[in-house]
Design goal:
16 strands, single chain, alpha+beta, 3-stranded mixed β-sheet, 10 helices, 16% strand, Beta-lactamase, 394 residues, 30% helix, 7-stranded antiparallel β-sheet
Length: 394
Amino acid sequence: MNMKNALDEILADGVKRGHAPGVLALVADRDGILYEGSAGERQLGGGAAMGPDTVLWIASMTKAITSVAAIQCVERGLLDLDAPASRVVPAIGALGVLTGFDAQGQPITRPPKRPITLRHLLSHNSGCSYEIWNPDMQKVQAALGIPGTIDCRLKALELPLVADPGERWEYGIGIDWAGRMVEAVTGLTLGEFMHQNLWGPLGMTSTGFHITPDMRQRLAGVHLRGEDGAFAPFPFEITQEPEFHMGGGALYSTAGNYARFMRMVLNLGQLDGERVLKPETVVSHLMLNQIGNARVSLLKAAIALTADAEFFPGLRKTWSLAFQINEEEAPTGRPAGSLSWAGLANSFFWIDPHTGIAGLLATQTFPFADARVMDLLYAYEKGVYDALRRTRKG
């Protein structure tokens, strides 16, 4: 069976078995698309099929793009990876480390042992956290009237740290702060900078923080799995009137557009003659561990929209300045040294420099890391590597 037939069958079976109401996927190499496929509907009962032009909320898949934007600023001398971030965005210097709560439920903090740097922010080594995986952050929000991160309000960035910068890997709002640093040194919104320096040069014509009328016509709806295991539409949309462009998770895009970004990484900073990063920068900043002996760890669910989340439990995983790195070969066949991450509505990608491919599978469903969606992801990824092996043997 060839790659297309094998992967089409996996996607169709996933929808039939209720893993997701709709799914799309692709595989690319340095030269182009090797596979595109989809199954199911954009919106349950809506009649419109998932397809290559479907627009998705890519959520935390945004982070890698924001990280590259910040690294472009480093290359241009506008930002310093290891200088205190407060020199660029003074408000980050006011963040203390949470040590507990007083009798009235107010948070108690102390000054951090060292300043937060851009390197800390990009590697999730800053001490910044997320309320959806940390109940203490929810208590802080309630006590101080801090909105959820997803609201795209500046006050959402006032959450305290949960560890000293440089102490451990902790997934959180650090990339939102990095996006604010890009805005501060360029005088542009994050979206304007990305349009000029990434989306435009890379031909990502259906990517943005703002859903254009054309994009809205192709937009997939979000669904929530209920207690009975069935999906139902779940009205959800990132605000279209944000106080700031949330670099950690507010982008909408298509699988094909994201493939162009991934292919740029595979091609060490360029695509179709347009260079956006130096080759040596891609290798040193995007492909190598930046958190020392720290390790990527389980994200323990603190709200119903996510399950406990960890990719390939038991495998050693680190972080570059943009991606998770699996330091050992994964059971799916993904080689050690591959780059990856995901989005909260169950969209996933990986970039495999060793094999020279990139893969993506996306639904628009909650909860994140739902067991059945993860089964579909791993079956798909294994199917990709099995098909590649058959092709190369033939």
